[in-house]
Amino acid sequence: MSLKPLYALLAGLVVATGLTFCSARVFRNRIYYNSARDVLFNVTAFFEDRTKYAPSYSEVKFRNIQKGMSEENVRSLLGEPLSKDTHQNDGYREIWRYTDGPPDSNYWSRAVVFDEKGIVQNVEREYFVD
Questions:
Q1: Whose CA is closest to 129, among 65, 74, 47?
Q2: Are 65 and 76 spatial neighbours (Cβ–Cβ below 8 Å)?
Q3: What DSSP element (H or E) covers 87?
Q4: N or C: which end of the chain has fewer CB within 10 A?
Q5: Interatomic CA distance for residues 8 and 2, integer angstroms
């Protein structure tokens, strides 16, 4: 019995895995994938990415947002968000959403959460799969 088909299959798997992990930094739709998991989410969703971005949004600039920054700092980096939501359930929170997508689709979610003083408390980076 020849081991050539087994070696060919193994080599193919190694190449496919390598490409998946290397493509984790692929630039697509102004988004850098953070990990192979992000790539796999997009591949399994057949590349259906229906993300809507704020006009001056940039992923590179979004990555510069840090806890402790002011609203003015965030606005100077990213411009105006697509939407702003206010929540007062567990204390005051204002959420600035820089991306959005239809509820029945896959999309990147990028949001900045501020406290009552206008200071960044959290930076949200997620990929929603529906």
A1: 47
A2: no
A3: strand 83-87
A4: N
A5: 11
Q: Rounded to an integer, what distance in angstroms lies between the CA atom of residue 35 and that of residue 24?
A: 5
Can you tell me which residue has the tokens 């007062």? 88
> pTM (2 decimals)?
0.65
CA pair distance 74, 19, nearest whole angstrom: 35
Task: Tally DSSP H helices, then E strands, for the chain.
Answer: 4, 8
Report the distance separating Cα 109 and Cα 54, nearest Å: 11
**pLDDT digits over 61-88, tens only?**
999 999 999 999 999 999 999 999 998 8
Residue 29's Cα: distance from chain center in Å? 11
Residue 70 has a CB neighbour count (10 Å cut-off) of 13
Closest-CA residue to 112 (of 83, 34, 49, 103)? 83
